[in-house]
TrEMBL record:
Signal peptide start-end: 1-21
GO CC entries: neuronal cell body; non-motile cilium; plasma membrane
Alphabetical list of SUPFAM superfamilies matching this protein: Nucleotide cyclase (SSF55073), Periplasmic binding protein-like I (SSF53822), Protein kinase-like (PK-like) (SSF56112)
CDD domains: CHD (cd07302), PBP1_NPR_GC-like (cd06352)
Residue span(s) of domain Guanylate cyclase: 911-1056
Protein name: Guanylate cyclase
TM segment ranges: 483-505
Length: 1128
């Protein structure tokens, strides 16, 4: 009984000092009974000690706010206690007992806190959830040496450790830390002048109250403080004129009218309606407590679109622990443990309560491990010290405790745009060194800014505006005279600018129509013949794929491909017949202008186009001397090393890469024939861009291709690649580049063997039709998996060991170029990277250097080989010249050799001689053919020797007939009659009447000629010649002959056929209408009187009607024998 009366006064004393008036007598009696029973046990068994408090049991005093929304806080504490045990954070043999009592109801929490301390022996308090009771209980807790941890109260007054030495807080609503974070963001943007908007009352618990003190230490000026009634409407705020005051003194404005962001809705609406929402104003909104689960513009009782516009481009700062990820994770865990789905506000409260108990568990563990024993939880100040300067990952993210056991939250700065929030700056919490903290309490922690997005502000530069506008808040700091001058200049520019731009466009259009690429036709000199390079350029370029070029070479050869020279530049040209005048649209003019100025080491230079002159359309490219890649790769006599193929492949992809990045975009006609090789063995792509223009002109019948005379007509020549090439801008360019690389690397045609024969047969059938459809080309390019024979196959490795890894990578790239879907084919940039990475040259230096080294090694052998070949060539040339000169006159032969065309020509006067062997038919009938040929060869060889000494030409021999002409093709005045007369005298048999002549020994050829097989035979010839006009020309291509035509030839033949053996017969002159005909008799009689002629008389000679009229004879002619020549 004495113990009972001892305890009772203590309880009454506690009631009077702590305002505890509602503790029941039953509870007191129960406590006394427990104490007395413990006393009895102690008396009965001295070895067992019964303490008032059991070891290892922590009694938790939970002061639960009288709010049904957060009714499940005890479940959260139990869940956290279980987690502490499960994760072995609590020491062994320790357990947590939770005693929950009401708070925040007329200071009921204070009463229950005393009860929990004196009756339940609570060693730690969690709660209450209201600031008024927290301020009281926080002062009682250090008197009891009990720590108290706040999870919902973040009042700045609680950070005073003189009055609250055992108080800790994990709340995210710390106003002072929010103020520090706001200052960090202001310093990040170099804002040194701000304005603050706060409520007219109750602002002491908000961050703006602490902000006013913080900015003084950071050299930030507070220009204006506007106080607004918390529940004022937008109209009332506008009518108060406070916005005008704010506008005239600040551009960076911190707005906080309550713990939740919804409290600033009406103010932001007023700002929006006052048109203060522009890029110069930045509204920073601290968001301390998330009391609603939706944004202000998602509320049901507002104009959502207007509110969204009002909050557009605002800066919102809130604790990172409110992140939706943390919220969702905890809500899922809590509902799975308890089966309760809490609302938004309750879940946030539960998360903070969980972190509070978790913090206590960590502190208890550290104190126990430091040797505190199982009674360490009774030492509240020690437990509180273990809660300072530590951090852990809780349900609200990183929990960082400072030296005052106050949580320093990390904050996220959001940019509101179009109803969504995007993090632009993260403000990471960080504790500083204790040395700095001891010198200055404000330096115990700080926030480090990390920008996640830059240039997000809706200004021209994307940067946030300065704190003070350039012209001040009212614009009074600017001198507007420059603006007036600028406006005048702008007006002038607006007037003159469009006119200048119009003139510029016209000038540009004029330059476009100047056509710097147009070449006058008179400056172009066409060359005969064509080289391999130009043949590849022009003749085969119609093929859009290398395989069709190879199989269609015969057809492509129909198109005229020539060389030309313009201003000293050798060109390869393509000629077309121009049907009508051609005009180019602007798109083609721009294309040709770009093409003219385009230059690259791996692109052939476009020279120009000649059109609308002489009905010709000529496209000119600079001539490459070594031909096309097809000429080189498929030339078996040309031995090329691997380095050449590597160089060729790299040149091709380099040129294609440049084309694809140029205004021309693509080649469109890529094939081996359009890859030329210059003198330095550099590959140059050609025939790009112009083919599309040509195809358009051909389609519109503005152009027509030239064709050879023996080929089909232009309308019947099929063009299988026109549509394919014109439409290959995108779909086929990857396919064609892969095809070209395939041919370069393996030096084979894409479809060789049986597959090639099949395609050749198919193409041959289709060429017989009028049109060649695009479907075939699409079938070749778009073959599916079942048609693998359409795609080229890779030849096996020469070594027999397969390809190395680098080659396999390159082959994979080539195969990717043949994929069915064009978009899946690699771009040329990727192809170039693969080629450069996997094709390596083995030699040193450039390709020309390697070529020169190889040439030096073979120089000695080549000199002898060239010398021998040159000698053979010269001998063959001489033989060809001799043969040609024996067939044709020398002047005619020279013209034909240089490529000149020999046109038929009329000669006013020439002398033609015919000779015939008397009795040739009889001799032939009694001789063998060999004997006949032998004696004719001997005789005519003698005649040839005589002709060689005179200005005459042997036209032909037919059997025993021998034809000579003088004065053709080289005219010699009247000397042709003298030359023929001398030749006739030397050819005929000797007449004894001429023995007295001094040149007798020169005219005895026939007289001394003997037949080898009939020496007794006396050889005699009939000779006749005639002078007059003749026509001459080359007849035939396979065996060209120089032939004579005209009445003079016929008359000379009649003179021989009607003559007498060993006589030289000519026709006499006749005068008709005072015109003296230039017959042989007249010429010899007038100009060469040394020749003697004897009249034979009149005989009947068959001549033409014209000569009949001229001679006035009908049946007979006056004939003279030419006797000889007087001796000098």
């Amino acid at each position: 009984m004495r113990l009972y009366f001892f305890i009772l006064p203590l309880l009454f004393l506690a009631e009077s000092r702590r305002s505890i008036s509602k503790i029941s007598h039953d509870e007191i009696n129960q406590h006394v009974k427990t104490t007395l029973s413990c006393k009895i046990i102690m008396q009965s068994n001295r070895d067992q000690i019964c303490f008032f408090l059991a070891e290892g049991i922590v009694r938790i005093g939970h002061l639960h706010p009288a709010n049904p929304i957060i009714a499940h806080e005890p479940d959260v504490l139990k869940m956290c206690a279980d987690d502490l045990k499960t994760r072995n954070i609590l020491p062994q043999n320790y357990s947590l007992n939770v005693f929950t009592m009401e708070s925040c109801n007329k200071f009921s929490g204070v009463e229950h806190a005393a009860f929990l301390h004196y009756i339940k022996n609570a060693s730690v308090y969690f709660g209450p959830g209201c600031n008024n009771e927290m301020l009281v209980i926080g002062r009682l807790a250090p008197r009891w040496n009990v720590p108290i941890i706040a999870h919902m109260s973040g009042d700045d007054a609680l950070s005073d450790r003189v009055q609250f030495p055992t108080l800790g807080s994990v709340a995210l609503t710390s106003a002072s830390e929010m103020a520090k974070a706001t200052v960090t963001y202001l310093n990040l943007n170099n804002w040194n002048q701000i304005g603050i908007v706060r409520p007219s009352y109750g602002f002491e618990r908000l961050s703006v109250y602490s902000l006013q003190h913080q900015i003084k230490k950071r050299d930030i000026n507070l220009n204006v403080v506007i106080e607004v009634e918390p529940f004022s409407s937008p109209e009332e705020i506008i009518a108060s004129g406070k916005l005008t005051t704010l506008q005239s003194q600040a551009r960076i404005i911190v707005v906080e009218l309550g713990m939740d962001i919804h409290t600033v809705t009406n103010f932001m609406l007023a700002v929006h309606r006052s048109e203060m929402k522009n890029e110069e104003f930045v509204f920073v909104i601290p968001w301390l407590a998330h009391q609603n689960d939706h944004y202000p513009w998602e509320a049901a009782n507002v104009d959502k679109q207007e509110v969204k516009s009002a909050f557009e481009n605002t800066i919102i700062i809130t604790a990172h622990g409110y992140d939706k990820k943390f919220f969702d994770d905890f809500q899922l865990k809590f509902s799975s443990k308890t089966g309760v789905l809490a609302n938004h506000y309750a879940t946030l409260s539960y998360m903070s309560l969980y972190d509070a108990l978790f913090l206590y568990g960590l502190a208890l563990r550290d104190a126990f491990e430091d040797g505190g024993g199982y009674n360490v939880h009774m030492n509240g100040s020690l437990i509180w010290s273990r809660m300072t300067n530590r951090q852990f990952i809780g349900m609200t993210g990183q929990v960082l405790m400072n030296n005052k056991a106050i949580r320093v939250p990390s904050y996220a700065t959001y940019h509101a745009i179009n109803g969504t929030l995007k993090i632009v700056v993260e403000l990471e919490a960080k504790n500083n060194d204790r040395g700095q903290c001891e010198k200055n309490e404000d330096m115990c922690s700080e926030h480090v800014a990390h920008e996640t997005i830059q240039y997000y502000w809706p200004s021209d530069s994307g940067k946030l505006p300065p704190a003070v506008p350039k012209c001040g808040f009212t614009g009074s700091e600017c001198d507007y005279r420059p603006y007036f001058i600028g406006a005048s200049i702008l007006a002038f520019l607006l007037t003159v600018g469009p006119l200048s731009y119009f003139i510029y466009l016209k000038q540009k259009e004029r330059l476009l129509y100047d056509m710097t690429w147009r070449i006058p036709r008179e400056s172009i000199k066409l060359l005969e013949g064509k080289s391999r390079s130009e043949h590849s350029l022009a003749s085969k370029s119609q093929s859009s794929g290398s395989f069709s070029g190879s199989m269609n070479s015969k057809q492509n050869g129909l198109i005229a491909a020539k060389q030309a020279v313009s201003n000293g530049v050798k060109l390869a040209i393509k000629r077309y017949q121009q049907v009508r005048n051609i005009t180019f649209p602007k798109s083609e003019l721009r294309l040709l202008k770009e093409l003219k100025i385009l230059e690259n080491d791996n692109l052939n230079k476009f020279y120009g186009i000649s059109f609308n002159q002489q009905n010709e359309f000529i496209v000119m490219w600079v001539l490459c001397s070594r031909g096309s890649l097809e000429d080189i790769l498929f030339n078996d006599e040309l031995k090329l090393g691997r380095n050449f193929q590597v160089s060729f492949a790299k040149d091709v992809v380099k040129g294609l890469n440049f084309l694809h990045t140029s205004p021309l975009f693509h080649h469109g006609m890529l094939c081996l024939q359009n890859c030329l090789v210059d003198s330095n063995w550099t590959v140059k792509l050609t025939n790009f861009a112009t083919e599309q223009i040509i195809f358009e002109k051909l389609d519109h019948n503005e152009l027509r291709p030239y064709v050879n005379a023996d080929s089909e007509s232009a309308e019947d020549v099929p063009d299988p690649t026109k549509d394919f090439a014109r439409k290959s801008s995108f779909r086929y360019r990857g396919w064609l580049s892969g095809m070209v690389l395939y041919q370069i690397l393996f030096r084979v045609e894409p479809f060789h063997g049986e597959t090639k024969a099949l395609i050749v047969s198919l193409l041959g059938i289709l060429r017989k039709t009028k049109y060649f459809h695009l479907e075939l080309m699409e079938m070749l390019a778009m073959a599916n998996d079942d048609d693998q024979w359409i795609r080229p196959t890779f030849p096996s490795s020469n070594t027999g060991e397969g390809y190395n890894l680098q080659v396999i990578f390159l082959l994979s790239c080539i195969e990717a170029c043949w994929l069915e879907i064009p978009e899946m084919r690699p771009p040329i940039k990727k192809v170039r990277t693969m080629v450069n990475a996997n094709l390596k040259s083995t030699g040193k230096g450039s390709l020309v250097d390697q070529m020169m080294k190889m040439m030096e090694e073979y120089t000695a052998n080549l000199e002898n080989m060239v010398r021998d070949r040159t000698a053979l060539l010269e001998e063959a040339q001489k033989q060809a010249d001799r043969l040609l000169n024996s067939m044709l006159p020398k002047s005619i032969a020279e013209d034909l050799k240089v490529g000149k065309s020999v046109l038929p020509q009329l000669y006013s006067c020439a002398t033609v001689l015919f000779s015939d062997i008397r009795g040739f038919t009889r001799i032939s009938s009694t001789s063998t053919p060999l004997q006949v040929v032998t004696f004719l060869n001997d005789m005519f060889s003698g005649f040839d020797a005589i002709i060689a000494k005179h200005d005459a030409y042997k036209v032909e021999t037919i059997g025993d007939a021998y034809m000579i002409v003088s004065g053709v093709p080289t005219e010699n005045g009247n000397n042709h009659a003298q030359n023929i007369a001398d030749i006739a005298l030397k050819m005929r048999a000797v007449d004894k009447k001429f023995f007295f002549l001094s040149n007798y020994h020169q005219i005895q050829f026939i007289c001394n000629f003997k037949l080898a097989h009939r020496p007794e035979e006396l050889m005699m010839v009939r000779i006749g010649f005639h002078s007059g006009p003749v026509a001459a020309g080359v007849v035939g291509l396979a065996a060209p002959r120089y032939c004579l035509f005209g009445d003079t030839v016929n008359t000379a033949s009649r003179m021989e056929s009607t003559g007498v053996a060993n006589k030289i017969q000519v026709i006499s002159s006749s005068i008709s209408e005072n015109f003296l005909l230039p017959y042989s008799y007249n010429l010899l009689h007038c100009f060469f009187p040394q020749f003697q002629m004897v009249e034979r008389g009149k005989i009947e000679v068959k001549v033409s009607e014209r000569i009949e009229k001229d001679l006035l004879f009908f049946a007979t002619k006056l004939i003279y024998y030419y006797r000889g020549k007087e001796s000098a």
